[in-house]
Amino acid sequence: DLFGFDKQTSSLLLEYCGILTIWTIGSLLISGLDTAIVGHFDYKNTGYYAIASSATNFMLLLVSNLMGPLLPAISSLQVRRTPLELGGLLVITTRLSTALLAMLGIPLLFLGFPLLRIWVGVNYASHALIYLEVLVAANIVRQLAYPYALMVVGLGKQRFATVSPVLEAIVNLTVSVLLARRYGAIGVAAGTLIGAFAGVIAHFVVSMPRTQAAIAVQRL
Question: Which of 192, 198, 199, 196 is nearest to 53 (CA)?
């Protein structure tokens, strides 16, 4: 054992990290290729789309940093809490996360133009606004299931929920490319929105029933 791991530990580690790698690749396909797709099919609007994407990513960064401590907390709580108690915690954290998304997202949806105008000026703000609104809406939808995803990873059950990031990545990439060929940059933004709905629906329809033994929660 070169690194001091036995076979069982190595197998568990590879399984855990391997599945998380799939999640990471899915995230790359969801958010990492959008600007490149826009640049290929609608080059003149690439700068405007990138500005909208940057503003949206800032919102996501705040949400991720504020909700991130949930992951180690769940890892430590799983030995002292029942699945029903963890389900109750999921409901509470999802409500808090949704409130946070509303606090950050609603100003971008309804005050996007004046905020962008302060940042990049009138010309860029007027062109980037439509992309910002669609991307903010898409990422609000995506992040509705973020507490659940964190809890699943914290409990080591991510293999039961992998269908969501995989499906979202496939739908996002496919629809974005198809719509970009006809509608340009706004088609890519719409692909992100459609993919977000696909990912959340997959969590509700496929993932949550498979993790009821660990997180007992009423999906309604």
Answer: 192
- pLDDT tens-digit profile of 74-119? 766 666 778 888 889 899 989 999 999 999 899 888 999 999 999 9
Output the six-digit token pair for 169.
């990545």
Tokens representing 18 are 């391997």
Phi/psi at 111 (nearest 5 deg)?
-125, 25
C-alpha angle 169-172-174 in degrees, rounded to nearest 5: 100
CB atoms closer than 10 angstroms to residue 34: 25
Which residues lie closer than 8 Å to 171 by C-beta, 6 or more apart?
191, 194, 195, 198, 199
CA 22 to chain centre: 14
| Residue 92 CB contacts under 8 Å (≥ 6 apart), including other chains | none
Q: Per-residue pLDDT averaged across 155-168, rounded?
A: 88
Phi then psi for residue 161, to 5 deg, are: -120, 10
